[in-house]
Amino acid sequence: MATDYKFEGWVADDPSSVEGKMVWREYEPKVWEETDVDIKITHSGICGSDIHTLRAGWGATRFPAVVGHEIVGVAVRVGSQAEGGIKVGDIVGVGAQSDSCLSRDGPCDACEVGEENYCTKRVNTYNSLHRNGSQTQGGYALYHRCPSYFVIKIPKGIAPEQAAPMLCGGVTVFSPLKRYNVGPGKRVGVIGVGGLGHCAVLFAKALGADKVVAISRKSDKKQDAAQLGATDFIATAEDEDWATKNARTLDVIISTVASPKMPLAQYLGLLSRGGTFVQVGAPEEPVPLSAFALIRTRVHLTGSVIGSPGEIREMFDLVAAKGVKVWVETRPMKEANQAVLDMVDVSALLGSNLAVANPLHPRIYTKPPPAKLPRAETSENNNVNPSELIPGAYIVEFADDHDTPETFLNSLKADGLDVESRMDLSNRLFKGVSFQVKNIGEVHHDSTLLRRKIESSPRIRSLWPVRTIQLAKPEDHGAPASGAITKANAKRQEAAFGNSTKDTFSPHVMTQVDKLREQGITGKGVRIAIIDSGVDYTHPALGGCFGPGCLVEAGWDFTGDDFLPNVRPLQPDADPMDNCAGHGTHVAGIIAAQLEGNEYGFTGAAPGAKLAAYRAWGCASTSTNEVLLAAFSRAFEEGADIISCSDGDPSGWAEDAWGVLAARIADAGVPVVISEGNDGGSGMFYASTPATGRGVAGSGAVTNSNFPTILNEGTFSVDSNSTSGAKSDFAYLPGVPQLVGDLSLQLWSPGENNACSDLPDDTPDLSNKIVLLLFPDSRATGCYPIDQGNRIVAKGGHYILFYTNDNTTMRDEQYVYSQGIQGVASIPPYQSDQWLSLLEQGRSVTVSIPSANNTRTRLEELENNSSGSYMGSFSSWGPTWELEASPQFAAPGANILSTFPVALGGYRVMTGTSMSCPLNAAIYALLGEAHGTKDPKRLRSIVSSTSKPLAWYDGTAAHTDLIAPVPQQGAGIIQAFDAARSNVELSVDSISFNDTDHFTGNKTFTIENHGPADVVFEVSHRKAVTMYTFVETTDRLRAASFPNPIVEEWAELQFSSEKITVSAGGSAELTVTCVPPSNVNATRLPVYSGYIALTSTTDAPSLSLPYLGVVGSMHDIPVIAPAQAYLANYYSQAPANTTYTIRRPDPANPPLTDRGDQSTTPNVIISPTVGTASIQVEVLRISGDKEENLGSLAGWPLPYAPRTETRAFFNGLLADNTVLGPAVYAMKVRALRIFGDRTNEGDWDVVKTVPFVLKYETSGNGTTTPT
Fold first, then answer.
1. Can you give the residue ranges of the Enoyl reductase (ER) domain (predicted)?
2. Which residues contact 148 (CB under 8 A, 6 or more apart)?
3. Could you give the CA distance from residue 1189 to residue 448 in angstroms, rounded to a whole number?
4. Exposure of 125 by Cβ count < 10 A (0-12 exposed, 13-18 middle, 19+ buried)?
5. Backbone torsion region of residue 160, taken as left when φ is above 0, otherwise alpha when ψ lies between -120 and 50, otherwise beta
6. Which three-class secondary structure state does DSSP give residue 345?
7. pLDDT, mean over the chain
8. Which of 990, 914, 941, 871 is nearest to 510 (CA)?
9. Which of 136, 902, 848 has the alpha carbon at shortest distance from 578?
10. Which burial class, exposed, middle or buried, applies to 829 when counting CB atoms under 10 A from its CB (0-12, 13-18, 19+)?
11. In what side-by-side order are the strands of the sheet with 697-703?
């Protein structure tokens, strides 16, 4: 039976989906039966089982698969034979089980006693088959279909985001707690204080246990455990005698951990005689068991799996009675891939559950617990390398400028290589081609020799592998609400610009662009090339046309819509239209949006400039470095004055082919501006290529001082029955359920009660009122929106308006799932302040909401009073691995309003360095017009020296007494007006004192005065925050994540002069002497930085020069150690001599080498501590005590690699396409140290894996056998 809704969700096609590669699309649901219920999903919890299933860790997964088995939503269709009294509109949930035999096939010992979860024919909510043969699919979706017996009504008073994680995680621990009679008089231990563990502590306490002991390796969860209700805490890694001290003190232990290395014997020793140990965490490997641990205390060792429908209902009864509230972080469903990645890095979520929620645009449903969620101590597992090598594909630069692709490729063919051209990459600065080697396996057995043979050709200057590049996704804050634009709002800036040249757009005010616009400087005569996803030039604010005479006057599409590397081919044409990604259109508006046709009344920073659009990504937002090189080449050859590219690859190296070409273009006189990246959470040394290219301007991002949001518009009147009852407009954000239809309601507020406790008896009838409520801090108060809603309904109310005290919550659409609530919305803080004041005065306020057909929208630019005007925490950090400053400077990039493809809504507010980069490029255009030069070196120097260093913001609070580090902000936020009026140029734009090995304490730079008057500067030192690169650990160095640990030590600077005069047209030198900080731990690689301040005593602008240095040796930091490169079974070390039986590879159609099954395919996981110029993975054939090096694994080596975890999969194929026979092999990983010499073996870190046995099969999915 067809439905009017589609079953769409995040579909996993193979084990690589666990790497954040699920795809949103339609899928086939269960074939409908009249016992079924269809659920419109509002929330789906993310469980560790989802991760195991995605990567096939518990056996084969039925792909394609939709995971998620903690599902809550609204029943939208109920079959005629459905059980349980479920009605359409009920809030219901589904856990990890969707069916069992229910004794339909004969007596079932489990189902007959209500233990359906132990039925031998249990049907899981996903990765199973329904009884009618349909595949089960889970909850990362819009809808879910399930047999009614396993659909649970959610009791009133339990919020959906609370109910979701309880349906699996909660009942998994509740079931054994009840089964083993936990209650008064019982002593309970809970091993692990993660998602399952924190539920176990809550439930043990709610059941009345006398003693609840939380057990973890370290004490960092002690405070959380106490908040949950734990009476005691054991940190096993911090007390050698923990097992002895606590022997026989517990009656029941619930083990939620999934580590096969748990000290099981010691845990069993904690139990009293006859005690019970229940394992609910599911390790992917066997857990060693000591029989004596069982024998000597007569303890019971058992397990438990999820819970039955009856137990789930019993659990919810306890939850409702005791007010149990789990810790939940909610995220929008569109972020499911990122949520999966964060669950893989399970340490990032200890102490909380995670739920993804529909609809597919950002919403926040509860305040996150606590003020700051527990986060990973290190960043290494947060990073997913966006680059993948394309086997056998290379980029080559010719040594002879007279060489051509044809002559070069013919020379390779003459050497016996079957090659074909991929792309001609030649321009005036770079002569080269990308090509594919096809039959290399037939010619050269040793892949290393093959590469050396190609590189040894006298025709070659440089060789790089072709790799994929993923377009850096900024945060998209959603499309505007539907409806007409409010005329008054649309004319707001139009009036300002029309009557004067005043620019009030906050990103322009922050960067002094407004002052240049007052002088009529608009970037006239400058062409800015945008290398991106194309531009929707049909947008009225972008000129509405393409070609000569238009705003977008030139361009080229290199990819076509459908391009996907190694899957769908390039389809180039002359039309760079962006009709799907939107990224390039947003960038174009930031640079040059026009006022005419602009519904929101803003302009780009350089509306007088012309644009050339080069489309380098298709709709899938994936490209290759060769396509990027071709785009840069064409932009340069076609006369770009400035090149802007909002993308990069987080390698931190300048020598990549893309970085090399970008640097040459800049050296040839064309400024190149590149986004620094959106990986600020990964800490230092994570700058993007080609932003790290020499002479290239890498752009960091500052948070907008304003918080623009596009809201619906209603009206209100005060004392409407009086003569002063004129109507005024107000803005609101619709929630769920939405306020609909010509409503006119009197405003009422419960005051301090806030409906977080029962409303008093004298509360008026609320049926014709709309209730104004403060959105609760649920974690701090225990009050949830559903609680408030229930109390409003109890007094006859149906409508709620929420407010907060934080402007930045005005994109967080709120849900209230109380039966009887018919409409919810949020209003800005300034509006609630006004209305509350009126109500306190005894005035009457009547609120009117228009019908859906008459809805209008308006732009609200609220003040960001928390993080505005500070560096965005997402903005990537430098420095480069060569210790050069990166980014160069910063501009507003968070919460930026700009254009978007017309078909996708026309406008968007987005966040990322993708947004700051084009603003910087536009400012270059303004300065080019102001100074009459586009020389990159001069512009970069002027922009850097006049930028303003910002105070340190640590992600939660500003520290106005500290300056943010140079590796985060470079020179600071651009000040365009100061740069335009500065006639002083510094010979350098930053100073690097390098590391201790290469330290040079004296640096001299020149100050040149191109102006008509003398300038005088007072010289001083402004210290910035010093930070450690690594966290303090005992096993190995681990990169710290944002914010990196601060050390209160600084460098000391001395100057050759404390006051310097530079005559008109003259120059002067200044020498700086640096003494690095001494009381620091050099092993943790502290990075010190600051600014040399040149404070002007004349009319000239004051200047500053950033500097940085490192205490310690970059070379001495090991890239890899044995624990960082090993034969892996997922994230555990595979045993020596494991046998892998895999399909024999076909050299004519080689398998992917960057992915595979992490359990059934030999793979080595590599977790470098720092970046490396080369990682090599070689295959060794083992015969007794002998080993033979067969050459590089297919897809390797990896040049200029970041400190990003990666895997090498061995599918029987070498890099030269040689198929290896069945034998015993090992893999050898080699990584070159920073500043290392490739020819010196001592500069390479080398790790060998344990041996493994390779066999081939003729069919099947492959197997793994430990031996």
1. 20-341
2. 35, 36, 37, 78, 79, 82, 83, 84, 86
3. 10
4. buried
5. alpha
6. coil
7. 87
8. 871
9. 902
10. middle
11. 552-557, 610-615, 527-532, 642-645, 672-675, 697-703, 889-894
Tell me how crowded residue 63 is: count the other CB atoms within 10 A of its CB: 16
Edge to edge, the sheet with strand 475-476 lists: 475-476, 907-911, 896-899
Adjacent-strand bridge partners of 398 = 460
Looking at this protein, which amino acid is placed at residue 406? E
Identify the band that residue 1244 occupies on the pLDDT scale cut at 50, 70 and 90. very high
> Helices in 334-428 by DSSP H: which ranges?
336-344, 405-414
Determine the Cα–Cα distance for residues 149 and 854; give it in Å rounded to an integer. 44
Three-point CA angle 160, 166, 171, nearest 5° = 150
CB-based contacts of 1198, cutoff 8 Å, min separation 6: 389, 465, 1174, 1175, 1176, 1206
Would you call 499 exposed, middle or buried from its count of C-beta atoms within 10 A (0-12, 13-18, 19+)?
exposed
494 pLDDT more than 50: no
Contact indicator for 984, 523 with CB cutoff of 8 Å: no
Q: What is the 3-state secondary structure (H, E, C) of 534-570?
A: CCCCCCHHHCCCECCCCCEEEEEECCCCCCECCCECC
Beta bridge partners of 743: 849
Helix, strand, coil percentages for the chain (3-state, nearest 5): 20, 30, 45
Contacts of residue 1063, Cβ cutoff 8 Å, sequence gap at least 6: 1009, 1014
Q: Which amino acid is at 1042?
A: F
The answer to whether the peptide bond before residue 1043 is cis (omega within 30 degrees of 0) is yes
Residues, the chain, total? 1267
Distances (CA, A) of 208 to 184, 273, 318, 674, 1059: 5, 22, 11, 59, 74
Q: How confident is the model at residue 631 (pLDDT cuts 50, 70, 90)?
A: very high
Give the closest residue to 506 by CA, choosing from 863, 781, 152: 863
Please report the pLDDT score of residue 305 as a whole number: 92
Which amino acid is present at 1093? A
pLDDT tens-digit profile of 355-413? 555 433 222 222 223 222 222 223 333 333 445 777 778 899 988 776 788 888 888 88
C-alpha–C-alpha distance, residues 668 and 3, integer Å: 61
The answer to whether residues 1255 and 1140 touch, using CB atoms and an 8 Å cutoff, is yes
Residue with token string 């994230």: 1131
Q: Of 979, 983, 977, 1100, whose CA–CA distance to 508 is shortest?
A: 977
Tokens standing for 166? 């309880």
Assign residue 1085 a region (left: φ > 0; alpha: ψ between -120 and 50; beta: otherwise): left
Whether residue 97 contacts residue 122, with contact meaning beta carbons closer than 8 Å, is answered with yes
> How many angstroms separate the CA atoms of 317 and 310, rounded?
11
Cα 934 from chain centre: 35
Domains of the chain (ranges, CATH numbers): 8-164 (3.90.180.10), 169-305 (3.40.50.720), 391-466 (3.30.70), 510-705+869-948 (3.40.50.200), 707-719+727-863 (3.50.30.30), 983-1117 (2.60.40.10), 1125-1256 (2.60.40.4070)
Distance separating alpha carbons of residues 151 and 97, to the nearest angstrom: 10
| Region 660-674 average pLDDT | 95
- The residues assigned a catalytic role are 532, 583, 914
Phi, psi of 274 (to 5 degrees): 80, 5
Distance of alpha carbon 235 from alpha carbon 232, whole angstroms: 10
Strands 300-303 and 799-803: unpaired
